[in-house]
Design goal:
With 210 residues, this protein is an alpha/beta fold. The chain is built from 11 helices and 6 strands. It is elongated.
Length: 210
């Protein structure tokens, strides 16, 4: 039985970056690379159904490109190669499924490892992105202008109970999309990268009663 190859959609502003990614995957017979331009991200996802997307550009252009796929029902895991990893790793970028953020000059081994990790749901971040988040992170408090709203406190309590967005939506009588929006806002306000981290920070700051 022939194994279905991993389809890696490589979108970049220039041929040099695309060639670098292709070189990183050249020795992997199970990988099929599909090149393209960032502006074609949405139609290429629909047409090619990639396993992973590699998007190489500036942080600003990447943000604009990701905004163009907002609302898509199915978005594959994404690996970003950007000039500013710190600026690219945000709550907004994580919504479309970004699983890795590397600098534009990342080596072939780093790129290949990030793609492999993304296919199994793991996150790969350049140290610069992590340092920037640690430096900017600050706990939420009742007096903070970034404190959680009453609705967000309800939702983070349910997150702590392990409820999915769909179940939370049903209990609150709102749409799953609205819940997803609130969860993204909670992560951003708490400076959390995952739901688990948000719950941990919520407990630490007295936002959740367990």
């Amino acid at each position: 039985m022939t194994k279905t190859p991993i389809r890696v959609l490589v979108l970049s502003d220039g041929d040099t970056l695309a060639a670098t990614v292709e070189a990183a995957l050249r020795d992997r017979p199970d990988v099929h690379v599909v090149p393209g331009r960032p502006r074609a991200l949405r139609p290429l996802i629909d047409e090619r159904d990639p396993t992973v997307v590699v998007l190489a550009s500036t942080a600003a252009r990447v943000a604009a490109t990701l905004g163009g796929i907002a609302g898509m029902l199915r978005v594959p895991p994404m690996v970003l190669l950007v000039d500013d990893p710190a600026a690219a790793w945000t709550a907004v970028s994580r919504r479309p499924g970004v699983r890795a953020v590397l600098p534009l000059d990342a080596g072939a081994e780093q790129i290949a490892a990030a793609i492999a990790a993304a296919t199994i749901g793991l996150v790969t971040l350049h140290p610069d992105a992590l340092r920037a988040r640690a430096a900017s992170r600050r706990p939420a408090s009742v007096d903070d202008d970034r404190a959680l709203t009453a609705r967000q406190r309800e939702i983070i309590e349910m997150m702590a109970a392990g409820l999915s967005n769909r179940v939370i939506a049903a209990r609150l009588g709102i749409s799953a999309y609205t819940v997803k929006f609130h969860v993204a806002a909670i992560l951003d306000k708490l400076g959390a990268a995952t739901r688990t981290e948000a719950v941990t920070l919520g407990v630490r700051n007295g936002l959740i009663s367990l």
